[in-house]
Amino acid sequence: MRYGLVGSTGRMGQEIQKAFVDHTLCLTVNYEGSWSDGGKPDVIMDFSNPSCLPETVRLCREHGAALVIGTTGLKDSDFEMLRELARQVAVVQSYNFSIGINALKIILANYSKFFEDWDLEIVEIHHNKKKDAPSGTAIMLQNATGRPCPMHSLRIGGVPGDHNVIFSNEGEVLSFNHRAISRSVFAYGALRAAEFAATAKPGLYSFEEVLQCSLKKS
Amino acid sequence: MRYGLVGSTGRMGQEIQKAFVDHTLCLTVNYEGSWSDGGKPDVIMDFSNPSCLPETVRLCREHGAALVIGTTGLKDSDFEMLRELARQVAVVQSYNFSIGINALKIILANYSKFFEDWDLEIVEIHHNKKKDAPSGTAIMLQNATGRPCPMHSLRIGGVPGDHNVIFSNEGEVLSFNHRAISRSVFAYGALRAAEFAATAKPGLYSFEEVLQCSLKKS
Amino acid sequence: MRYGLVGSTGRMGQEIQKAFVDHTLCLTVNYEGSWSDGGKPDVIMDFSNPSCLPETVRLCREHGAALVIGTTGLKDSDFEMLRELARQVAVVQSYNFSIGINALKIILANYSKFFEDWDLEIVEIHHNKKKDAPSGTAIMLQNATGRPCPMHSLRIGGVPGDHNVIFSNEGEVLSFNHRAISRSVFAYGALRAAEFAATAKPGLYSFEEVLQCSLKKS
Amino acid sequence: MRYGLVGSTGRMGQEIQKAFVDHTLCLTVNYEGSWSDGGKPDVIMDFSNPSCLPETVRLCREHGAALVIGTTGLKDSDFEMLRELARQVAVVQSYNFSIGINALKIILANYSKFFEDWDLEIVEIHHNKKKDAPSGTAIMLQNATGRPCPMHSLRIGGVPGDHNVIFSNEGEVLSFNHRAISRSVFAYGALRAAEFAATAKPGLYSFEEVLQCSLKKS
Q1: I need a labelling partner for C155 at 20 to 30 A (CA). Which of A137, B149, C36, D65 fits?
Q2: CB neighbours (10 Å) of residue C161?
Q3: Which residue of A has its CA nearest to D183?
Q4: Each residue's pLDDT tens digit in chain A (218 positions)?
């Protein structure tokens, strides 16, 4: 796979380069300038910031390249731009490229009904610099279960992010536990999204849809 | 629901009576003798031993009662008897009535493909009286993932039974953890099976199928 | 060891008999009546209720037997009675005979200073019938650390009782996790207390002191 | 505190600079050359490699600076050099500067006797690049308990390093769980060692002794 990278010198750009080590970086865009090996990328990765989006979209059109976009803080007008582009190429957009969290969301949405008469509580643990509680991910997981429940937020040390969804009845406990090991967590999800987008039909996809599609392939 | 109970004085029979506290026991069968309030049971529970099966089946036919059977060590001829009965009434047969373990088996069978390029290991913990390792449940869960993996068996103190199925890649860990709290674990599953069987069409069902059916109801 | 048991027919009395299977029950006291094999007990166990205490103390004096008392709700006048008795025989009194919890309390009291610049939070999990939160044990453990900290109480299913004391700094997490498996948890601690009391000098001992003494023996 | 840093441009040197952000770096030594602000350091940090040791020792003597050394693979002749230096200044030497692991080692050495009739097993989890099993840290913790026990090694994904020491009897489980979050784990321990060394009497100290001393201060 040949890929382009918007924001290649930033922290996220560097994590992506590590995870994409078996693929060819052929185009970069940075504040300092751009570079290209002259060939066409199959997919362009953009985990930078909304102000870069117009240039990113222009490059996707120019090269007929798919787009994987993990930029946060997108506005309605940004989504409009993405929908336009998605008529021409595959676009994968998500605010959370963790494979584990997205898989868990799908599993909870499909199977929480098994446990509808069990008790449910969620515990999440993050580093002590994190200001909001509960975490956005914890709220997303709770929504996936389809019912309110007590949430517990621990803010300790340098923990990157644990999420535990715990069901229990009189005789048993079943818990779904996710631990982010490091910042590279999103980069491996981005790689899976890129591999999907490089061959997918035009359209706007969520990361959950990318995962769901992987189930259909034998 | 009105239910009959084969082996009502045994340990399992007593756990069932505790879990079925909102339902009416109307028939019991024991080595010491039998008792009936004269009415018909909707379902008969048998968690005793294979030698009781012919009498159990006879009672189901006599009353048109469904059957939930958790007896272990059934032979081919016993299954033949159950299939016969299943033409007339609903029969639920399983060696493991834990809701959590059966739910986990379904989830792993359906979604392990998300993690096919992640590492996988299973850890199970049981009391120090347990002789076999890995546990039958651990093997069943591993089969559900569709691939071999390292298994670790701890045999310590009085732990009733923990099973942890752990997936990990470079950036995250997702683990599915089940803990049996007590012997009552199976009785609550048996209750769910009984509620299903009391209104189901004739047929031979696994406990997994009972759970799957609960997903279809809104 | 020969032991007497006040309240032998109650739930706690039965758990004690299971844990004391290698020792000889030679005296019982119940509402229904008393029984003795005619010989002297080395120690008398009382996990019943405060109203039995005068008779228990009388029996200890009569036989020169040590006392292990786990009765809850003792009043000042009850403690006065125990201090009196302790001039003559060894008396072990505690509201919590869990070896693990008492060991953890000692460890936290001695070593929390290692982590004085780390974050600290406590998570405890109990069954959904438990009304108070946080649990008395969680408060006791927090006191042992010598500093206030956030406490999280989960009330789910039939969990007998988990306590997790979690320290973390930027680079590591150290947690001390206790799980009660069953009601027998206290009976094994009571056995250790009885073995101590049977040979100890007269005096009033806490269960922590019993454990501390076990460290001094080689 | 004013500190010198041997190997300031290496990965470990950079982690140390992050952890020592409230202190003044006044001297660096690298293959590329050396730098000094002209003043005296209170302590010199060396987490580089054995070949740098003679120059490090020379600098400690010149400045009367204490030494914290975490270099691995030291030979007898290197220890001889450290013992010589320790007549003049405080020297802290360890192969593992994790506060949590060293604290756990002390706790297990002092209190495993509480659980001498309980079962014991150790589970450690590391990334799939780690070749040896069980880990050196797991062996060290087992030695601290004073008895052999089953060890389980998981090698999955990118886990930096978990160690769980699990005791259990019939009624309860007590586990001591350590998780390394990141490579910075050793840098915070090194900081504690430096703060100790800067004011300690001459002598050769282990990191365990540094921790033990912190208990004596009120």
Answers
A1: A137
A2: 20
A3: A182
A4: 999 999 999 888 999 999 999 999 999 999 888 999 989 999 999 999 899 999 999 999 999 999 999 998 899 999 999 999 999 999 999 989 999 999 999 999 999 999 999 999 999 999 999 989 999 999 999 999 999 999 999 999 999 999 999 999 999 999 999 999 987 889 999 999 999 999 999 999 999 999 998 887 64
Predicted local confidence at residue D217, as pLDDT: 64
CA D135 to centroid of chain Cα atoms: 16
Q: What element of type H or E holds D216?
A: helix D207-216
DSSP B21: T
Chain A positions in Cβ-Cβ contact with residue C170 (cut-off 8 Å): 127, 157-158
User: Beta partners for D66?
Assistant: D43
Query: Nearest 10 degrees: CA dihedral of B183, B35, B23, B100?
Result: 30
For residue C70, what are the β-bridge partners?
none
D123 part of contact set with chain B, CB < 8 Å: yes
pLDDT by 10-residue block (mean), chain C, 218 residues: 94 93 96 90 95 96 97 93 98 94 96 95 96 93 97 97 96 97 89 96 96 78
Q: What is the pLDDT of residues B16-36, one digit of tens each?
A: 999 999 999 999 999 888 999
d(CA C169, CA D16) in angstroms, rounded, equals 15
Structure-block tokens of residue C104: 């953890």
Quick check: ipTM above 0.95?
no
Instruction: Given the residues D23, D105, D126, D163, select the one marked as catalytic.
Output: D126
Structure-token pair, residue C11 = 């739930």
Nearest to B181 by CA among B98, B82, B110: B98
A128 touches C: beta carbon within 8 Å: yes
Compute the distance between CA of residue D103 and CA of residue C216 in angstroms, rounded to an integer: 21
Contact list in B for residue A178 (CB cut-off 8 A) is 172-174
**Which chain A residues have a beta carbon less than 8 Å from that of B104?**
174
Question: Which among B126, B129, B178, B216 is annotated as catalytic?
Answer: B126
D77 shares contact with chain A (CB less than 8 Å): no
Assess whether C130 carries a catalytic annotation.
Answer: yes
Mean pLDDT over the full length of chain D: 94
- In angstroms, the Cα distances linking D11 to A150, C135, C157, D25, D194 are 42, 45, 48, 16, 19
Structural domains in chain B plus CATH codes: 2-97+184-216 (3.40.50.720), 99-179 (3.30.360.10)
What angle do the packed helices B99-111 and B136-145 form, to 10 degrees?
A: 30
Integer Cα distance of B54 and D136 in angstroms: 59
Collapsed DSSP state (helix, strand, coil) of residue A128: coil
Q: How far is C168 from chain A (nearest CA, A)?
A: 5
Q: Do C156 and A171 touch (CB under 8 A)?
A: no
Taking contacts as CB-CB distances below 8 angstroms, the residues of chain A near D157 are 181
Most confident of B30-39, B209-218, D192-201: D192-201
Say yes or no: A164 contacts chain D, CB-CB below 8 A. Answer: no
The candidate with the shortest Cα–Cα distance to A47, out of A100, A98, A101, A95, is A95
Strand bridging mode B119-126 / B90-93: unpaired
Does the beta carbon of B150 lie under 8 angstroms from any beta carbon of chain C?
A: no
Which of A18, A114, A167 to mutate to test binding with chain B, by most B CBs within 10 Å of its CB?
A114
**What backbone torsions phi and psi does residue A104 show, to the nearest 5 degrees?**
-65, -40
Nearest CA to B195 out of B105, B104, B101, B97 is that of B97
Strand-pairing partners, residue B90, are B203
Strands C33-36 and C43-46: unpaired
Flag if B119 and D158 touch (Cβ within 8 Å): no
Nearest to C193 by CA among C93, C55, C101: C93
How far apart, in whole angstroms, are the C-alpha atoms of residue C129 and residue C139? 19
* Three-state SS at B120: strand
Residue type, A76: D
Answer whether residue D213 shows pLDDT above 90.
Answer: no
